């Protein structure tokens, strides 16, 4: 299931409203979850161990915030549905609302992808701006309390351990405290400790799959002429392991990230960074760096060893009163830009699960969310397995699909319709099987034949 076949958010679908929900983690997944929970619970509390000022900051708990954060279509749509006017706020804050068909140059498979026929809206902002605007909307609601500097140390359960009834927190000011809840949502990210908690309380733990890519990011900010709202994305194809992107954001800057997989990590000194950028398969990023002032010389680095998925949907026993969302369930190779949108789709599934009541909420939520995560995981991991060095379990049919996809990409260099459908799949708008529709197959085959004559 992707955006095209999930019903849109509709607050009127959730009618009953009672109890208290606690969300642990006030990053994007926690904020999305907190907002949809407020339709079904009288009070929602969103906790984070970091302080949460109304500022545009890269918090300690979200070290990836200094790097490019592309917001794909499900994230954009959910932010607009939950917080109408969000795009205008991005623009007011100096971010860019782009038509990606015309303004995002995507290089893949040895050439640039053709301009799509239709407009493809794309909100461009730094990750701290996305988080600040979202946090502000959540904080404005009387039925949601945001509590920063509040470290959750444990879940609390009833005597027989069947139901989670709250969380144990350490708060800078007040010391230790228990916060009672009718539902606890774990949105603590990739290092979530729910599996350990389940094990300690005699529950089965979710099977965890890792797909190793040994990736690293290096990122700088570069001054941008305000009238230049173009973005660039260079996706490597084997045997090339390096790529990069420059996204226009607020403050008249581009955030420029270069990355390398399978140990081919970009340096963090300015000369090395520039040299790495100039070795990419297309010159766009290198030109941005060469022709514009750097906004300071700090180069941020982020190593990302592996995508990780925890299969909560397969558990035959799980406590009542507990859910897990966002990176805590699945954290994807970031070069595909899916994390915030997967979290948004989790929240949309949670919304629909709540609309059907509270009974068996966890099972229904995990089942629904898994249908989407299967698609996102397949896109990420499938693409990663184009490289022989990728470690982990390769989904069945990956090699065949990858070969076909390389033909789609070849066709998309020239054919605007194929380019659009391909981009919609990358944006998590359409299911990858859309690329097998007769209208696309025919065009891909024609392009293939043309390449041989
Ligand atoms: C380098 C990099 C680049 C990325 N680029 C993109 C991109 O382009 N597009 C995209 O959509 N996604 C991207 N992502 C993924 C994206 O950052 C995440 O998917 C997104 O933030 C949602 O994650 P989350 O909210 O589940 O967890 P996180 O963002 O990891 O947040 C977890 C939160 O929980 C809090 N927390 C943890 N433990 C506790 C505790 N015990 N008590 C209280 N609070 C706690 C932390 O402080 C933090 O705020 C990228 C990731 C990386 C690593």
From TrEMBL:
<protein>
    <submittedName>
        <fullName>2-polyprenyl-6-methoxyphenol hydroxylase</fullName>
    </submittedName>
</protein>
<feature type="domain" description="FAD-binding">
    <location>
        <begin position="21"/>
        <end position="356"/>
    </location>
</feature>
<dbReference type="GO" id="GO:0071949">
    <property type="term" value="F:FAD binding"/>
</dbReference>
<dbReference type="InterPro" id="IPR002938">
    <property type="entry name" value="FAD-bd"/>
</dbReference>
<dbReference type="Pfam" id="PF01494">
    <property type="entry name" value="FAD_binding_3"/>
</dbReference>
<dbReference type="InterPro" id="IPR036188">
    <property type="entry name" value="FAD/NAD-bd_sf"/>
</dbReference>
